[in-house]
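Below is how a single chain appears once it has passed through the pipeline. First comes the sequence as given, then the structure the pipeline wrote out for it. We keep one example in the README because the format questions we get most often are answered faster by looking than by reading.
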Amino acid sequence: MQNIFVSKVYFVISQPFSEMIDKICNTTEKMFMRYGIKSITMDDVARELSMSKKTLYQYVTDKDDLVKKTILLHLESMDFVCLKVFKSEDNAIKQILKIAEMMINLHKEINPGLLFDLKKFHPQSFQIFTQHRENQMEKQIIDNLNLGIEQKLYRKDMNIQLTAGFYIASIENCLSNELPILNEFSFIEKYAYMVNYHLLAICTPEGLEYIKKNKTLDFKPNI
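Resulting structure:
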C-alpha cells in the first residue's frame, strides 16, 4: 500500500486494508458515486453489504472514517491505474487518451454533488483529495507535458505550470456541479470535451495528425 502525500508530510496507512474493508469501501464508493455522500447513511451501507450496523462499526468508527477510508482506497486505485498507463505507453498523447478512456469508464455514473458533499461535510477527506491532486496528479500532468514537447507532439512555447493547473481545474469542474452553466451536461460529455479542448490547445500539427491517425480507443477525440 503506497503512501499518500498530505502537504509536506506523509499520510501513511500503517496496516494493509483487510479484505472486508476493501469490500466495504468498494461498495461505499459505488453508492457515493451514484447518490452522493450526504444522502448515504451507515444504515444504507450496512444494508447494501447485508451486514448489521454493529458489524460495520467493527471496521470503521463512524461515517467520517468510512468516507476517509473510501477516499484513500479510491485515490490509491486511481494512482495504480494511471501509473500502469504511464509505464506501458511511451507516447504522450496516447497516455492522455488512455487515461481519458479509464476516467470515462470509471465515472459513467457519478453524482455531480459528490465533491460538494465531500468539501462541506468531510473537510479532512476533502483535504486529502486536494493535496493528492496537488502532489500526485500535478506531477503526472507535468511529466506528460514535458514528454509531449520532447516528442514534438506538444507545443514547446506553452507555460507548463499554467497548462497543468488549467487541466486539473477543468477535471474538477467536470466532476462538480458548482458551475451552473455546465450542469445540463453529463460527466462523460464534459470530460470528453475538456480533453479535446486541452489537446487542441497544446498539440503541434504533428500531434494533431497523430490523433487523426490513431482513433482506435473507446475514447475518440473529436479532432
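Confidence is low (pLDDT under 50) at residues 1-17.

See the next section for the split statistics.
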